[in-house]
Protein: MIP18 family-like domain-containing protein
Amino acid sequence: MVGKERLENVNPQVFTKASQRVESSTDWDDEVYDPFDAREVFDLVRNIRDPEHPLTLEELNVVEECQCDVNDAENSVMLHFTPTIPHCSMASLIGLSIRLKLLQTLPTRFKVDVRISPGTHASEHAINKQLNDKERVAAALENPHLLEVINKCLNPRGQK
Structure:
């Protein structure tokens, strides 16, 4: 986490979390085909922690279920996220955290696209280009310090 004196958004607005997904009797039945949907993708990323605050991306409204687009038949996932401020210097880090979480948890058949919501960040185009360039992402994940920060974002609250 960044020291309080260096926070860009000192007092972010905190939003109500969505309810937990209600499981049906067929959710754990291997005989029933269950395609991936937006709620499943949202559930994977909702608890990623913000790098500056002890809050989740869901609590800051950075990710929402309506920003997740899943096409199970075409093996594609598109997730848009909304930084809390238009000049957020953590937007690339947040996007990398989301991308890594999805790559680690979704089946490898999925093409994952992570983008900043249109019009919500001053460097939207450049960050989107970085987040969806395999070589740039791989290079970023080879940086031990950056990977340590991302792993802190990915760990659930209370775990080190």
In short: Residues 91-105 form the longest helix (15 residues).
